[in-house]
Amino acid sequence: MNRRAVVTGGGSGVGRALALKLAAQDWRVIILGRRAETLEETMRLAGPHASRLTHHVCDIGDAAAVAEVGKQILAQHSEVHLLVNAAGTNAPRRSLEILSLEDYHAMIATNLNGAYYCVQAFLPQMRTRQSGLIVNIVSDAAKQASAKAGPAYVMSKFGLVGLTQSINAEERRNGIRACAILPGDIDTPLLDKRPAPPDAVARARMLKSEDVAECAVFCINLPEHVVVEEMLVRPR
């Protein structure tokens, strides 16, 4: 089966880990990200499966850029069976007291608006085909706000769960499923944006990107009549 997936945030973290796992399972994977060098590194890491990956440089917070890349992908591949919204960001100065308007808008643009733009780019052809899966990599911050995450990040993740639920509410009748995966702390480069980045001991206790990618793969490989609407996963 020639299955095609689009994965945002494919240059690092969960997006990279999931793109590599999908390629190893014979998916055709198109990865999106803001930096060509990190996307190309993902392709190199795919080793013998590298031919199954292609990439597009795209700032998903830019609606026009997403629409254009979506058109290019569908013109080349005709169908996308799976969309994974894995891109995400935060800022060191994240508390309400010091959060800048610029950082607030940047987080909402990437974490929430970008996912919405990507859904709108690929959902119509899923609807026409009466089949498709959208996986949103969220955060356990969508369950309970915390000072550690900061308000803009929390707001964006609550919104992403709302988007997931809305897709299931409206598109289930069209054969489309959506899944929100809500991981706890993950050892990814995003930790370096914390006001006080955790040390190696703390990182060793966290989830790995590959752990979260395995959760996504589990949901992706379930039969089409099964919908995992939310999966909450934390380190032991």
Quick overview of this protein structure:
This protein has 236 residues and is of the alpha/beta class. The protein has one domain: 3-Layer(aba) Sandwich (Rossmann fold), CATH 3.40.50.
- Which CATH top level class fits? Alpha Beta
- Might you state the CATH topology name? Rossmann fold
Poorly predicted tracts of residues: none
Distance between the termini: 37 Å
Any idea what the CATH superfamily is called?
Answer: NAD(P)-binding Rossmann-like Domain
Biggest pleated-sheet summary: 7 strands, parallel
CATH architecture: 3-Layer(aba) Sandwich
Number of domains: 1
Globular, elongated, flat, extended or rod-shaped: what is the shape?
globular
> Helical content, roughly?
40-55%
Radius of gyration: 17 Å
- The number of distinct helices, counting runs of at least 4 residues, comes to 7
Could you tell me the number of beta strands?
7
| DSSP strand content | 15-25%
Widest beta sheet: strand line-up: 3-2-1-4-5-6-7
